[in-house]
Amino acid sequence: MKFALFLAAALSSFALDFPMSLAVAPDGRVLVLSGGAKASISVVNGAELPLPDAWLGLTFSPNGKMVYAGGGSRGVVYEFSYAQGELKLVREMKAGDFIGDVALSPDGHLVYAADLLANAIIVINPQSARVIDRFKTGRRPYRILFHPDGRSYFVSSWADASVYQYNTVNGEEIGRIRLGSHPTDMVLSSYQPQSPDAPATSNSKYRLFVAAANTNEVFTVGIGDNKTMNLIETIHVAPAPLSPLGMTPSALALSADQKHLYVACSDADVVASVDVSDVRGVVEGFLPAGAYPAAVRTSGDRVWVANARGNTVDTLGETFRPVADTPPLDLAPAEHVIYVVRDTLPEPLMRAIGGVAPDYTVKLGGRPNFNIGDPANIPPAGYLWTNALAAGLSVRDYGVFVRDGKAIDPAARAFTKPDASAFPEDLKQFDASGVMPRLILVQISSDEALASLKSAVAKSRFAAKTEIVVGDLRRVEALLGLHPMTRKD
Prior knowledge:
By secondary structure, the protein is mainly beta. It is globular. The strands form nine sheets. Strands 32-29-33-28-34 form a five-stranded parallel sheet, sandwiched between helices. 11% of the residues lie in helices and 38% in strands. The protein has two domains: 8-315, Methylamine Dehydrogenase, Chain H (7 Propeller); 336-480, no CATH class. A hairpin with a 5-residue loop joins strand 6 (66-70) and strand 7.
């Protein structure tokens, strides 16, 4: 497939705030939904319509005349008319508490909306704008995708590492398959490669591709005539088989002939191009994108990408570039490491203790209803202490990742104290016993407190054997001989 190069500079005047979703209109124009502090919906290079709030869901009606979008914390589904590149808000349909994805039944008669934090699918009759059903789902329903026959729909569960299939009429669960952590986007392909090497499980009518953001993988699920779901293949979209986690594959699109799959790898700032024309997907290369690509769509011979951090929408050029892992630091080991964490904002905090801010943090972290301890917010490789404990190291935590005096991660409560005030007294006990944990985490908020900690350690018997590290996870990993938790470039 040839890619038309479309320079980002051409869109520099197109103001966006955290673009989350793209949709292609029947006339080929591209719509973008922004879910930041200044939410809006726009036709690319056209006028923006400001919205009270928005998040993920964006879809056209089957006839292309109406557009539906999820209203985020406003709890509504927006309905817009669309004609000749112009959008007009028709109404807001009350749906739930926090509306994420939105999908229409294939016949266009009903709207299905994901109530993200309530773990439910809301069904709305767009004729009356009234909720007619409410169906339970797995935890944190992210994407809704209808089976082409309209009798069932798939839901990716952000927190359950699973994809569920439900009966359209009554919401009854008719199947589920467990895949990787943080399944997000899904696309369905009717193209079936014909090969004598095809595995037995590939005897299916459709292939469902599922991105799992807390892995480096896209999963291929076969959907049979009886709607059974079978894992056919795991497509690795990292530069090497043993690359640390952190590619964050979070959005998908298929080419018109369904032979190429495009995967937005958010934390690598690239879109992976995967040849899926045969029974085994082959990563062809990585297309450079802007900062944190969060949505990808194809239109004709173009591949469009929305860059959430770059606040831009671009089309991608045809030049592939390698994605290389940063080599680990080569440092002499330290007998003890005191890791000082200073920033308590969600994204820098998660990077400091987990190596990467999970997609849940990035997409919801700035909102008042964000819960940093949500089950969908665990980092890809766990936390620093997870890694240290697995390596047999002793750990003590003073106030890092603590809420209401307790560690947010239940696994850390046995060695966590509410704040840094207990450290000086404990250091005296370490001095007296001659035993100090290999890894100590300390939450410190001021230069004076940091200077006091350094002074106390300098006077202890452990001074010559201890490294104090401020906010540098890679250095901590190197000093303790831990495997890197995520890829870092």
